[in-house]
Structures are given as C-alpha cells and as structure tokens.
C-alpha cells in the first residue's frame, strides 16, 4: 500500500456494513459460551429470575463445588480423559501404520485394498448391525467398545496416505540402501516427518473422542463407566423433561447452574487447545478437500 | 526393484494360473514387512466395517439374543413389509427428507457469504479474529450445543422467551411445538457449521489471481462489482461441487442432535430413520425390525451418495476420494 491515507474516502459504506455484520456474527458465535459460563458462576436465585445475561450475577463457585463434590462428574471426567487418551493413541498409531503400505505404489494388492477401504465410506449398515458386532465380540460395557469399532477413520487414513505419497522419496531410498527395514523407515523417518499431518488428524480424533456421546451411551450400561458427555446428557434430558418417570434420578433435580458448570468443565480443555489447534483444524479441512 | 508384481505382469513367468500364483507369492514375499504392517488395518476393516454387513442378515430373520445370528429363523421380507405398510414409514421418510432438504437449502449459502464477507475485510487482525471465532462451535459437542439450545429456548428463563415477553408477546414453548422443530434444527446447524464450512470457500477465494482485482480497480469497479463479477464466478466450480456433494450426504441427518432435542410432543416432525431405529430397534430390542429399517435407509443414502459422487467427478471435482 503506497498511499495509505486515512480519510473518509477510504471508509466505504460497504466496509462499514461488512464490519457490523461480521462483528454481529462473532458475537452470536461466542455469546452462548459466555452465557453458559455466566450462569454457572451465578446465584441460583438470579438464574431463576432470568437476570443473568452477560456477566455472572451474585458471583459464586457453589455450582462448581457441588459438581466436584458429587462423585459422578469427577469420575466421568477421568473416564473421558482415559478414553480420549487411549482412543486417540490407538487411532493415530493404527492410521499412521496402515497408511504406509497403502502409500507405496507397488504394495501387494494395493488397488484391491484401497477399493475395499473406500467402499466402506458408502456402506453404512446402521446402528443395529454395528451394535451386534460389538456385542458378539463381548466388548459391550468396556472401553474397547468405544475405541476399537472406530479405530481408523477412513477419511483420515486416506488423507495421511496422500500425505505420505507426497513425501520426498530420497530419504527412504537412502535408508533402503543402508539396509533399513520397513519398520525402521516407517517409525524413524516417515512418522517423524509427518508430524504436521498427524497433528491435524490427531486433532479430529481427539475431538471425536472427547465429544462423543452416542457411542458410549449405547455401548456402556454401567453408569460408573460413563464419560462426561453421557453424564451431561443425563443432566440435560432429565432436567428439561421430567416426563420420563422411570428414569428420574438425582439428575432430575440438577439446577441449571450445576449443569452449566459441568458444561464449562467439559469445555475447558477444548477451549485451551482451541487457539493453538485451529491452525491444524483449518489445515485438516483443507487436506481433506485437496486429497485427490 | 519391482521385479514381480501386478504391474509387472509380462515379466512374470507365463503359464496361466500357476504362473500368476508364483508371481503373486513372490510379490507377497517381497512385501512381507509391509503386509505385516498392514495386518491391523486389514483386521479392523474386516471385523468392524465388513463384519456388520454380515450382521445385516438379521433384517431377514427373527433375531433374538438367545438364538444368535446364525440360528435365528429366516422370515424373508416380513420386517420390510411390516415397515413399508406402517404409517411410520411415510412419516419418517417425510421427516428425514424435509430436514435434509431444508438443511441443505437454507444452510448452503451461509458459508459462501461468510467467506466472501471475510475476504472483503482489509484489516487483517479483524479478519483473523472473526474467522478463528467462527470455528469455535465445531469444537463443541452435540450435547453442549443441544444444551445451549434448550437453555436459550426455555419457556421459563430462556433468553429468547424473555425477549419475546419484554416485547409484550406471549412466550413460546419452542421445543414442545412441532411447527418450530425444523427451524430450530436447521438454524442451530447453520450456527454450528458455518465457520467450518467457510474454510473451503476461503481457500478457493485465496486461489483467485489478485491481478484480476487490480485490473478491475483500475477500470473503476466497485466492491460489489468485484464480488459478483470476479469472486463468485471464480469460486463457482467449488460451489457447484460442494452442492453436489452435500446433496449426496443430505440424508445423513445429525440424528444425535435430533435425539437430544426431540420429545414425544415433536415426534411427528422430528423422528427420522436413525432415531426410529434407535428407539424401536435398540431400546425396545426389536433388532431385526431395526436392522431392516436401517438397511432401507442405508440403501437410499448410498444411492444418493454414489450418484452425487458420480456427478461431482463429471463436473471435474474430486468426489469423496
């Protein structure tokens, strides 16, 4: 910009309207999160009267104390951390290993395997056949039911495969000359060089585990095993429509502040990684769309 | 290096099946380390992606937990006949289709508009901040989003109803009224996905040659001219392909959100195939009936997806793979 003069002529009507629209959009996006947080920090009386809009009214941490003293939420929190850590680790390991042979142009049966893998993106047998497999394998009510049936996401596998394919061949060839095995090449050269791609797909896997509720809801019967999202869902459903007489439990009495405190607690890790993760997030979306 | 293998067939020993088997065997031997690395992936796809297809045969049987998949009695199309002749069928069909179509038609333009508006911002920190904030909902779980919807629309203390009351109108029990359900579903979906979906259009816009804009500026073009004459035509191929692909996955309703937001009061508009399978099949243990309904849905969805993929490729797009 050569003549960057600040004058009224540079401020167009379009620019002003555009800025207003985008500011409103940003507010609409963020406001629900702020509101939930404000309610979780407010006195119950203020919440019930509907006085809380932007800032906490009658600031207190009672809801958090209540939630953390009740054993359900802390236990669910630990469950979620455990499932997410184990699940993401398995996802990343299996995807990183599986993508390697598939990325090799003359791998035995490559075309057949790729076709068989891609076909599964179009076949979705539905909730019941998936449930039956998990149940026949005796995985119900265990962490493996959450981890194994989705151990590899086909889309992420294909993304990583094309990332490997675009990697320079020279390092690998040098290693072959040195007599390195495929295992060594994969774990000591290819995987370390794929950190950016692994960070992107790892983020999607992480979010998938941290936020999943339907799968744990149908595969886990024992409430001791519930992750945070399922506990949250119980609080949510039963506090809204107590019309489920057979299912009413202590959660039915959960006041809004307690529920929102649980939401905030479940959002904290996500919101902490979000500023750093969003770079990988956009990259992951783009990797997905460019993959030919 | 590649002395054997499928792409080197002419070099393989001739002599029909026997020769080809020898070649394949040599190829396998050469690739044994790669094959070992591939075993976990292979097992995963066989067990958890193709295994359930085997489980689908219960749609043609009377499955019970006690007899197992194999020993259950064959009943042919009984469950399909029951489903197609029940009034639920048309209701579910209508609900699934309408939610999908409304979501597609109303949801589709927003990411494009957002990407264009963001592109017009000259202040970089503002552009970056708005874009970063717009991804935020993608990081929230469906339970949290549903909880926010319920809170905001609550007839007692929900912000929206307080606003309505302040204006002197009567409060609305949004989630209890069938007429509001689709609006709530679609608008919350737009809120949750607009930033994420704008990423692809932002990238398409970033690929436009800047000299086009400079030339237009020299010719005295206004901003709106440039949007309608340069930006939109340039990203039109992306828009068309996204539309085709979205049409293909239209019937993949976010049933988790429906499950969290609907109630018996709104079943008449909210119940879709997947929620019905969950309720009738899984919760009430009618596994065979649920599998039949799920199979029907899967076939319809697959046809739609395959045809959209076909059109996307014909239009020069990448398709799903």
TrEMBL record, chain A:
Localisation per UniProt entry: Cell membrane
Residue stretches making up the ABC transmembrane type-1 domain: 77-277
UniProt keyword list: Cell membrane, Membrane, Transmembrane, Transmembrane helix, Transport
InterPro entries hit by this protein: MetI-like, MetI-like_sf
Organism: Paenibacillus lactis
Similarity section: Belongs to the binding-protein-dependent transport system permease family.
Designated name of the protein: Aldouronate transport system permease protein
Membrane protein topology class: Multi-pass membrane protein
Primary residence: membrane
From TrEMBL, chain B:
Keyword hit for Cell membrane: yes
Protein location: Cell membrane
Highest taxon of source: Bacteria
Membrane topology classification: Multi-pass membrane protein
Protein name: Aldouronate transport system permease protein
InterPro entries given in the database record: MetI-like, MetI-like_sf, UgpAE/MalFG_permease
Chief site of localization: membrane
Membrane spanning stretches: 34-60, 97-121, 133-153, 188-206, 226-246, 289-311
Alphabetic keyword roster: Cell membrane, Membrane, Transmembrane, Transmembrane helix, Transport
Family: Belongs to the binding-protein-dependent transport system permease family.
PROSITE patterns: ABC_TM1
CDD domains, per the entry: TM_PBP2
Name of one Pfam family that matches: BPD_transp_1
ABC transmembrane type-1 domain sequence ranges: 93-308
């Amino acid at each position: 910009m050569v003549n960057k003069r600040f004058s009224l002529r540079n401020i167009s009507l379009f620019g002003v309207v555009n800025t207003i629209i985008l500011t409103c959009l940003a507010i609409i996006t963020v406001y629900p999160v702020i509101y939930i947080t404000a309610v979780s920090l407010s006195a119950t009386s203020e919440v019930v009267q509907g006085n809380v809009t932007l800032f906490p009214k009658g600031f207190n941490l009672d809801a958090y104390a209540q939630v953390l003293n009740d054993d359900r939420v802390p236990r669910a929190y630990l469950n979620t951390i455990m499932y997410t850590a184990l699940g993401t680790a398995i996802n990343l390991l299996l995807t990183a290993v599986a993508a390697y042979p598939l990325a090799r142009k003359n791998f035995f049966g490559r075309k057949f395997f790729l076709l068989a893998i891609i076909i599964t993106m179009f076949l979705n047998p539905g909730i019941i056949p998936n449930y039956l497999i998990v149940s026949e394998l005796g995985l119900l009510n265990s962490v493996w039911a959450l981890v194994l049936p989705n151990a590899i996401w086909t889309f992420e596998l294909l993304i990583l495969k094309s990332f490997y394919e675009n990697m320079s061949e020279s390092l690998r060839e040098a290693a072959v000359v040195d007599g390195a095995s495929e295992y060594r090449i994969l774990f000591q050269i290819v995987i370390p060089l794929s950190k950016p791609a692994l960070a992107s797909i790892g983020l999607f896997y992480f979010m998938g585990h941290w936020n999943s509720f339907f799968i744990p809801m149908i595969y886990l019967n024992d409430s001791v095993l519930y992750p945070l999202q399922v506990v949250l869902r119980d609080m949510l459903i039963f506090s809204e429509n107590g019309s489920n007489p057979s299912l009413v439990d202590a959660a039915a009495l959960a006041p809004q502040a307690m529920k929102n405190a649980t939401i905030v607690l479940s959002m904290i890790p996500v919101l902490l990684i979000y500023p750093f993760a969003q770079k990988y997030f956009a990259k992951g979306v783009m990797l997905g769309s460019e993959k030919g | 290096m590649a002395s054997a293998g499928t792409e080197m067939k002419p070099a393989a020993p001739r002599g029909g099946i026997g020769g080809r088997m020898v070649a394949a065997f040599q190829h396998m031997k050469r690739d044994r380390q790669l094959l070992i690395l591939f075993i976990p992936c292979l097992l995963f796809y066989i067990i958890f992606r193709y295994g359930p297809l085997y489980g689908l045969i219960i749609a043609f049987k009377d499955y019970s937990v006690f007899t197992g998949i194999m020993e259950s009695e064959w009943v042919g199309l009984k469950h399909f006949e029951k489903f197609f002749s029940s009034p639920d069928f048309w209701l579910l069909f209508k609900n699934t289709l309408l939610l999908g179509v409304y979501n597609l038609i109303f949801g589709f333009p927003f990411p494009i508009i957002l990407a264009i508006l963001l592109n017009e911002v000259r202040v970089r920190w503002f552009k970056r901040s708005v874009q970063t904030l717009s991804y935020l909902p993608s990081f929230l779980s469906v339970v949290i989003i549903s909880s926010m919807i319920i809170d905001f629309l609550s007839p007692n203390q929900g912000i929206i109803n307080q606003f309505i009351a302040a204006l002197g109108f009567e409060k609305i029990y949004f989630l209890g009224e069938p007429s509001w359900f689709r609006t709530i579903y679609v608008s919350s979906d737009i809120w949750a996905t607009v930033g994420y979906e704008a990423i692809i259009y932002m990238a398409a816009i970033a690929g436009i040659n800047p000299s086009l804009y400079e030339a237009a500026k020299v010719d005295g073009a206004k901003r709106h001219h440039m949007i309608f004459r340069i930006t939109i035509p340039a990203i039109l191929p992306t828009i068309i392909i996204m539309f085709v692909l979205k049409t293909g996955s239209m019937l993949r309703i976010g049933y988790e959100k429906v499950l969290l937001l609907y109630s018996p009061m709104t079943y008449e508009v909210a119940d879709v195939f997947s929620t019905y399978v969950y309720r009738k099949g899984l919760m009430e243990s009618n596994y065979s009936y649920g599998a039949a309904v799920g199979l029907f849905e899967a076939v319809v969805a697959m046809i739609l997806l395959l045809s959209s993929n076909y059109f996307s490729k014909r239009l020069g797009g990448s398709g799903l793979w």
